[in-house]
Amino acid sequence: MALDPAEQHLRHVEKDVLIPKIMREKARERCSEQVQDFTKCCKESGVLMVVKCRKENSALKECLTSYYNDPAFYEECKMEYLKEREEFRKTGIPAKKRIQKLPTSM
């Protein structure tokens, strides 16, 4: 039985693991300023980072949580996942291994 590439049904693992993974990655990109601030603070503070970086940690958590709780962001990530899954089902090649060929001459 072949899987329909355009099929939209999501398995439990896709809903609860794979799509949230995409959400985390995209949220970290979108909150890159807060991630950098927190990372810098941690590197400068060493062992005392728990105490000294509370403000940066709170800002990072707030930014990430705003994305995690946004239904539109979930839908965006879900559509991205479905597109990747559909392409995989058509080609059999995972997105990580797919290399987009660019023209060599212009």
Automatic annotation (TrEMBL):
Its main location: mitochondrion. GO terms for cellular component: mitochondrion. The keyword Acetylation does not apply. It is found in: Mitochondrion. Keywords: Disulfide bond, Mitochondrion. Belongs to the CMC family. This is COX assembly mitochondrial protein. It comes from Phyllostomus discolor (pale spear-nosed bat).
